[in-house]
Amino acid sequence: MTSSSERIEIQGLSRSFSGRAVVSDVSLQVAAGQVMCLLGPSGCGKSTTLRMIAGVETPDQGRILIDGQPVFDAGVNLPPEARGVGLMFQDFALFPHLTVAGNVAFGLVGDKATKLRRVEELLEKVGLSGFGSKHPHELSGGEQQRVALIRALAPKPRVMLMDEPFSGLDNRLRDGIRDATLEVLKAEGAAVLLVTHEPEEAMRMADEIALMRGGQIVQRGAPYNIYNAPVDRAAAAFFSDIN
Ligand code: ADP
Ligand code: MG
């Protein structure tokens, strides 16, 4: 039960490895149509947080609700496939035996013509029209990554969890791919939690930023506010290399 309209809600999430706390009492909410960036330096616990929400890592403590339903709570621990979330992770992998179109259509339901239209529309958004009949081994790494991105977008998930999905992309392509991804997610009104260690990416993509350090959220707010009024010197220094 929840009284709010949040699509993602986590409360007091904690996780230790070998006695070392890597996520400590993290709470946050993401509403429909909102992009929340979990931003912080490498090793601060961002991926562990996201992995717990996805269901591939088990919290020591806390609650996780998706669409108001507990997916992790006392006596509840739904497996990833039952949580109703879309995932875009860094280490994407395509099915090697399927074509590009087959990969993108994999999670889709409906008749063949509808699926093909959706696949074509998405390929076009990331500059890969005409690639549908190729196999993954015929594509460059960056092209494969773009296919993996749109494969995650294709089923129109209501909740999308993204862990640095743009980090390996060529500078020349990255802005366009980010914009195309946001356009698709916003059109569907998805709630998006995007993990990044790049302030510039968070400034560009977030409606709200949760700044993380040492396993804790140290500041939350609109990008402009965090950038202009960082909570402390460390936060200011972290933002200082944006130009
Ligand atoms: P981030 O994504 O912010 O870079 P992570 O959540 O991946 O940080 O990792 C936070 C800390 O937890 C790191 O020090 C990492 O080495 C450690 N860690 C993550 N997963 C495990 C694991 N399965 N076993 C042991 N330590 C881990
Ligand atoms: Mg990480």
TrEMBL record:
Its cellular-component GO annotations read: ATP-binding cassette (ABC) transporter complex
Q: What GO terms are given for molecular function? A: ABC-type ferric iron transporter activity; ATP binding; ATP hydrolysis activity
- DNA-binding keyword on record: no
A Gene Ontology biological process noted in the UniProt record is: quaternary ammonium group transport
Q: What keywords would UniProt list here? A: ATP-binding, Cell membrane, Ion transport, Iron, Iron transport, Membrane, Nucleotide-binding, Transport
Indicate yes or no for the key word Membrane. Answer: yes
Query: Where do the ABC transporter domain residues begin and end?
Result: 8-239
Tell me which domain of life the UniProt entry assigns to the organism this sequence originates from. Bacteria
Q: What is this protein called?
A: Spermidine/putrescine ABC transporter ATPase
- Tell me what organism the protein belongs to: Cypionkella aquatica
Q: Which residues of the full protein are shown?
A: 1 to 243 of 360
